[in-house]
Amino acid sequence: MSTNRQQFEDRLRTLRADYAATLPGKLAHLADLWREAFERGAAGALAAFIQQCHALAGSGSTFGFPAITNRSRELEQLLRPMAEAGTPLDPAINARVTALLEDLARACEGGDAESGAEGARSTPPSIPSSVDLLGDDGPLHDELHAQLAQFQYRVTRFTAPEALLDAIGRRVPAVVVVDRDLPQVRETLDSLVETIHARSFGQSQVLVLGSEDSFALRLEAARANVQAWVTKPPDMGRMVDTIDRLATPAPSEPYRVMIVDDDADTRSFIRFVLEQRGMRVFTVSHVDELLDNMREFGPELVLTDLYMPTCTGLELARVIRQHDEYLGIPIVYLSSETDIHKQVMALSEGADDFLTKPIAPHKLVSRIASRIQRYRGLSALLAHDGLTGLLNHTTFKERLQHEALRADRQDSFFSYVMLDIDDFKQVNDTRGHATGDRVIRNLARLLSRRLRRSDLIGRYGGEEFAIVLPDTTIEDALRLLDGLREDFAALCHRDDTGGEFHVSFSAGVAQYPDFADIRQVHAAADAALYRAKQEGRNRVLARRSTDSV
Question: What is the pLDDT of residues 177-224, one digit of tens each?
Fold first, then answer.
């Protein structure tokens, strides 16, 4: 058993033991509430009793006590409709409740089911920017290798499936490109792809390259769990785009989940499960603190119970949706409510999903991750340029302002770059706008792969780009941009007729806070860019505050 799995299971056993230790006190309190509700007719005690049953119904099976869940759910389903309708409690109801409470007490003696958590399994080390290429070592693969190397991919080539599979057993490439025309592959594609996925633990993405194209072949590939298909002869730019998409690593920023639940046991367990999967979790027990907590934590999903003492999940969703900045944030109910009509009603109030307690940890993680992925995707569409995937003009200017404020607070600096593709109008006029778009995408890809995650890259307009390099001197920025300029000029582009050509760019650099504000630093970088164009293009120049106008 791996160390990670052992630690995970040890922690689960501790949580289960802690939960079991609290059960006698919880059930004693439940009995007290029932006596007060039945004998004294206290409506508040009845509401608290139902709420406590709801919490136990959700947490029992989670911690390995399915009988606790079943009896608590029976109590809640018996009494909640009566409380909502104001129906008096009679001796028959008292007898039924007392019997269920006795069943609960017996259930405290021990659970008879596992919590359903799944531990991690050991996998070979992964290599995010690596591509394995299985083919015949011909000119096509030579060109693909050269193109991928330009974008900092580490390419390993194989001519035999056995050698490829042996290598994947020792390290995991981000993408495996399989040439279906290879004789050893044509008849065994299904089993080959299955073995690739098995040996990489599902981490490697598979792209199939083939000279034929038909629905039947693509269906065969889809059934083999192939992630992409490219027909020969490929457009190298588009193929590299596809490999880029497949090789995109998991988000560097952990998912941020806010849990709103009055039950401490449930909060503790869910927090543990999500944090084990690398998520950041903030728990809220008092809903009146919710909005302040949301502003501070910035959740990407709110996970809440449907029934809580001070407000319902429906009411909570309405409050959240009253704020424009939270209109798109996913709200997911996690509740022991099994009435489908109530679940549908809850979803109609602005929530995105309804999960029923108990839920296996891996399913909870999967549902939450998929919702946040979609949320991030939609947010990215609003903030990023559709052609390049870089920050759009508006978002870049907002981030630039934030970076200037950060530099002021921390007494820091950054280099600001304006960059423009040389003679781009000629590319569009002679080779077509579709080719021009591919040139823009190629430059965007080069910038994205070669710059740091902390750098800001935006498409400022047309063929013009803007870059912020935090904590980078103007001298370092000049060296970096000059290297990028040389690499971009060496890239081979193709038009729709197969014609090959090369393109260069020019750039201007200025440094903040050498100039008083972002308007001035932008103007300085733009002036340096203009001078680079005037002096012959294909160069990077700087504008310093000491330079004469």
Answer: 999 989 888 888 888 998 998 888 777 889 999 888 889 888 888 888
Q: Within this chain, do residues 422 and 538 fall inside the same structural domain, yes or no?
A: yes
Total of domains in the chain: 4
| Residue in 45, 27, 12, 61 with CA at minimum distance from that of residue 336 | 61
How far is it, in rounded angstroms, from Cα 160 to Cα 166?
Answer: 10
Q: What is the pLDDT of residues 306-349, one digit of tens each?
A: 877 788 888 888 888 888 888 888 999 887 777 777 777 767 76
pLDDT at position 126, please?
Answer: 59
- On whether the CB atoms of residues 75 and 93 are closer than 8 A, the answer is no
Identify whether the C-beta of residue 543 lies closer than 8 Å to the C-beta of residue 521: no
Using alpha carbons only, give the angle 351, 354, 356 rounded to the nearest 5 degrees: 155
Q: Are residues 85 and 137 in the same domain?
A: no
d(CA 173, CA 157): 12
Provide the token pair at 225: 């769990």
Residue 548 falls inside a structural domain: no
User: Do residues 335 and 307 make contact, with C-beta atoms less than 8 angstroms apart?
Assistant: yes
Task: Pick out the chain residues at pLDDT < 50.
Answer: 1-2, 112-122, 250-251
Torsion angle of C-alpha atoms 103, 305, 336, 10, degrees rounded to 10: -70
Could you tell me if 14 and 62 lie in one domain?
yes
Q: Are strands 505-512 and 228-231 parallel, antiparallel or unpaired?
A: unpaired
Which pLDDT belongs to residue 54? 83
H, E, C per residue of 201-264: CCCCEEEEEECCCCHHHHHHHHHCCCCEEEECCCCHHHHHHHHHHHHCCCCCCCCEEEEECCCH
Give CA–CA dist 229/177, Å, rounded: 10
Write the CATH number for 538: 3.30.70.270
pLDDT value for 507: 96
Q: Side-chain half-sphere of 356: how many Cα atoms within 13 Å?
A: 9
Q: Count of CB atoms within 10 A of residue 377's CB? A: 9
Is residue 72 classed exposed, middle or buried when 0-12, 13-18 and 19+ CB atoms within 10 A define those classes?
Answer: buried
Peptide bond into 513 cis (omega under 30): yes
Q: What angle do helix axes 3-40 and 43-59 make, rounded to 10 degrees?
A: 160
Can you give the residue range of the structural domain that contains 410?
393-542
Provide the pLDDT for residue 25: 86
Query: Residue 118: its pLDDT value, please?
Result: 37
Query: What are 76's two structure tokens?
Result: 């809640």
The 3-state DSSP class for residue 499 equals: coil
List, in order, residues 6 or more apart from 399 with CB less than 8 Å away. 391, 456, 458, 468
With beta carbons less than 8 A apart as the criterion, state whether 278 and 261 touch: no
Query: Which residues contact residue 484 at a Cβ distance below 8 angstroms, ignoring those fewer than 6 apart?
Result: 446, 447, 450
Which residues contact residue 325 at a Cβ distance below 8 angstroms, ignoring those fewer than 6 apart?
Answer: none
Q: Distance of alpha carbon 540 from its chain centroid, rounded?
A: 36
